[in-house]
Amino acid sequence: MKLAKLTAFFITLVFGAVAQSQTPYILRPSATGNISDIATRHSLIVVRPLDPSDSVFLVTGAADVPSSEVETEVAADADVTDIELDQTTSVPELTQSTGVILDQLPPPNAASYAGTSVLGSYLSQPAPQLIGLWDAQSSFGLTGAGIVAIIDTGVDPYQQVLASSLVPGYDFISNTAGNASDWGDLSSTTQSILLASNPDPASKSYDAIINQSTGVILDQSTGVILDGNNIPAAFGHGTMVAGIVHLVAPSAKIMPLRAFSANGTAHLSDILRAIYYAADHGVHVINMSFTLLQNSEELSDAVQYAQSAGSICVAAAGNTGTAYVASPANLNEVMGIASTSPKDTQSTFTSYGDGVFLAAPGENIITTYPGNNYAEVSGTSFSTPFVTGTVALLYQYISNSGDDHIHSDLSHAVSLSDQLGNGRLDIYQTLEAASSSGDDGQ
User: Fold this and answer.
1) Measured between alpha carbons, how far is 239 from 50 in angstroms, rounded to an integer?
2) How deeply is 161 buried, as exposed, middle or buried, from its count of CB atoms within 10 A (0-12, 13-18, 19+)?
3) What angle do CA 398, 311, 13 make, to 5 degrees?
4) Rounded-to-integer distance, Cα 384 and Cα 296, Å
């Protein structure tokens, strides 16, 4: 379902409050249905519209009534197109425990990238070389363009590597426009510790592992003070994703859209709002490093709306290690991204099969972390932004090419397995394909 765009979308209209005793649903009235009348008939409370044309709404019903009964009853109403539970979802790395061996990393050193001092291993790690990033940047003179929306936990607005690339976004948890920072869920004490950590990349040691899935490169004194109990499970997830986009396309602008809390969870309704917001604010590519437990008709509608507005959608395939690709990666309009290893093989944890469009490196990736720190991470969440960043390179390179051209160019990849779609991302091949097909705008 494609909806007309209205610029007033970003103004949140609250008709009621989501109380602890209420169960949230996403409801779309028919073209002739009135949301207030529908809510009255079924004892629902209207909380807010979720899309720019006020055609889909967050509503709540009594928590003591089974959700299946509510959905059956309301769906039978002739004035209702559909209703679904406002499911809670998470970033896929919450269910993955990776073994990070920080003492095997190279010695710390500083380097310059896009006018900023960065950790040397951020540039020298295997992934950029594997996907032909440096050859592509050198041969084609590209550093990216356009706006990349990252729907995630937020992005640290003070991370020195990222600061100049950020544009104002939106925090859908607190309903505020601006930085959409991922700091808000930390205690003031933990914030102070991270902010006081040594910002000099050449001084970093590799001693601190502060949660199961992330090995964070901090100075030694910080590592001693912090432990996993102080850091929510997905804190910094959005900043880490942003760091990979920036690595591939340092001139692209990054718009943080915070729909996930630092514990890694989000409501589908906030994700929908973020997709509609991105589409209505000139975003060229949307990074979705998350998976849903269940398919969603409303998510599909939102993605179609974004596509009709000219936004390319890229999503993590998931970390199940099975032939099950979750939504939104499994949607036809979305490029689902699997993970490969530093040895250029299929990652053992990655989801694969139908729904995978491409694979990209997703193991032991060094990227930015809040507090001017760095992290080594693994998961399809971190494969995805390699492809997202490549779309930003293509956006700089091509002129007036639609989705089909971008998908076609990206499909020129390195074949590793028939389980990984078109293969492992190769940026040089992608840009060569764009050039030979006449897509280049240079």
Assistant:
1) 25
2) buried
3) 150
4) 21
Strand order in the sheet with 45-49: 45-49, 57-62, 22-29, 80-85
Does residue 402 surpass a pLDDT of 70? no
Question: What whole-number distance in Å separates Cα of residue 367 and Cα of residue 365?
Answer: 6
**Closest by alpha carbon to 347, among 377, 390, 314?**
377
Residue 245 to residue 42: CA distance in whole angstroms: 45
CA distance linking residue 357 with residue 346, whole number of Å: 14
Of 64, 63, 59, 65, nearest to 84 (Cα)?
A: 59
116/160 Cα distance (integer angstroms): 7
- In this model, does residue 356 exceed pLDDT 70? yes
The mean pLDDT value for 196-208 works out to 70
Residue with tokens 């917001």: 277
Decide if 363 contacts 347 (C-beta within 8 A). yes
Neighbours of 405 (CB within 10 A): 17
Which domains are present in the chain?
7-86 (3.30.70), 93-436 (3.40.50.200)
* Spatial contact of 47 and 58, defined as CB atoms under 8 Å apart: yes
Distance CA 377, CA 357 (A): 22
Residue 220, pLDDT score: 64
| CB neighbour class for 436 (10 Å; exposed up to 12, middle 13-18, buried from 19) | exposed
Q: Compute the distance between CA of residue 206 and CA of residue 215 in angstroms, rounded to an integer.
A: 8
- The phi and psi torsions of 75 (rounded to 5 degrees) equal -65, -25
Cβ neighbors of 77 (< 8 A, separation 6 or more) are 33, 38, 41, 42
Question: What is the C-alpha separation between 28 and 56, in angstroms, rounded?
Answer: 4
Cα-Cα-Cα-Cα torsion 71, 72, 73, 78, nearest 10 degrees, comes to 100
Q: In the prediction, which pLDDT does 103 show?
A: 45
Q: Residue 137 phi/psi, 5° resolution?
A: -60, -40
Across the chain, how many H-helices and E-strands are there?
13, 19
Closest listed residue to residue 233, CA positions, set 386, 98, 32: 98
Which are the contacts of 258, defined by CB distance < 8 A and separation ≥ 6?
A: 152, 153, 154, 169, 170, 171, 172, 173, 180, 181, 182, 238
Is residue 102 predicted with pLDDT exceeding 50?
Answer: no
